[in-house]
Write a structure and sequence with these properties.
This protein folds into two domains: 124 residues; 143 residues, Rieske Iron-sulfur Protein. Helices cover 35% and strands 14% of the residues.
Length: 304
């Protein structure tokens, strides 16, 4: 007696037909593309609702769904199948004609399924594109060779984040303030650190570059890697008193009384200086834009 003839023999595993495999691949492909569509739409919703997690998860689901869908679709198409057409006889029998009719019927069903898959595939790609529209749009306008320009220009008032202009007569010394060009409050590349020191402390080149009555203004964007230079300190240990602008990211130190030249840390060049003037109403204004490009531009190293 063989194992198959015994009563306790395990049941025979049913043979899986090619049709069943294709049907399953079809269902998986449809499900994957539907999930991809849902993922793409969720990502779009997440972007507009400021839900970063939903945005990230949605895009991930959309990409995975499209990937799974394409793999299942290729299984459904059975791309490895070899088809051999026999051409010995040109006359057909009744059975052959019946078979042919059956085949046409099956082909119609298959074409219908392919249309559905094509539509779902296109829909999932479209929803993925919708999901990416927001993040791509957030990259901002394309640079047009105007990197050197900021909101500063001739006669632009320096204002605080509240829009208050700075009276040149202010007697507040050695206190750092962040100011913006009037009309461009909050714009990153225009932000400036403003400081007033006793005029006699400033070096000649600092005055030549636009310091006025002890006021000096420099770009707030660190020339090392673009962090905000937001710290100011005075080291008054003998014999000298040192004023320092410090970038907290990697501890670059700049000398505010000497054109913000770097005196410590990795910053390769001084902070761009904003030339100042005083308008008819006694408020601080800029003479022009910065004296050079703001930010970490290592290829202009050598400027001081
Ligand atoms: S970004 Fe300022 S020191 Fe690195």
């Amino acid at each position: 007696m063989t194992i198959d003839e015994r009563d306790d023999a395990p049941p025979a595993i049913p043979e899986v037909t090619q049709e069943a495999i294709e049907a399953r691949a079809f269902r998986v492909a449809v499900a994957a593309f539907v999930i991809a569509v849902a993922g793409g739409l969720s990502a779009a919703w997440g972007y507009w609702s400021d839900e970063d997690r939903v945005l990230g998860v949605g895009l991930g689901v959309a990409l995975l769904g499209i990937g799974f869908g394409m793999v299942s679709w290729s299984k459904y198409l059975d791309l490895d199948e070899n088809v051999v057409q026999q051409r010995e006889r040109l006359r057909t029998t009744v059975e052959e004609r019946d078979d042919f009719a059956e085949e046409i019927k099956l082909t119609k069903e298959t074409v219908g399924r392919r249309k559905l898959l094509t539509v779902l595939f296109a829909g999932s790609l479209a929803s993925l594109a919708v999901g990416f529209i927001g993040p791509i749009g957030s990259l901002g306008p394309k640079p047009q060779g105007e990197r050197q320009r900021t909101g500063w220009g001739e006669g632009t008032r320096l204002v605080t984040s509240n829009g208050q202009p700075i009276p040149a007569s202010s007697q507040i010394f050695d206190q750092l303030a962040t100011v913006f060009p009037e009309g461009s409050i909050g714009v990153d590349d225009g932000q400036v650190v403003l400081l007033r020191v006793q005029p006699g402390l400033l070096t000649e080149r600092t005055i030549e570059r636009g310091a006025i009555e002890g006021w000096v203004a420099y770009s707030k964007i660190c020339t090392h890697a673009g962090c905000s230079v937001g710290l100011f300190g005075i080291d008054d240990r003998k014999p000298d008193t040192l004023r320092q602008l410090v970038c907290p990211c990697h501890q670059s130190v700049f000398d505010p009384v000497d054109s913000a030249r770097p005196i410590g840390g990795p910053a390769p060049r001084s902070l761009p200086q904003l030339a100042l003037a005083i308008d008819d109403e006694g408020f601080l204004v800029s003479q022009s834009d910065f004296d050079r490009v703001v930010g970490p531009i290592s290829w202009t190293e050598g400027e001081t």
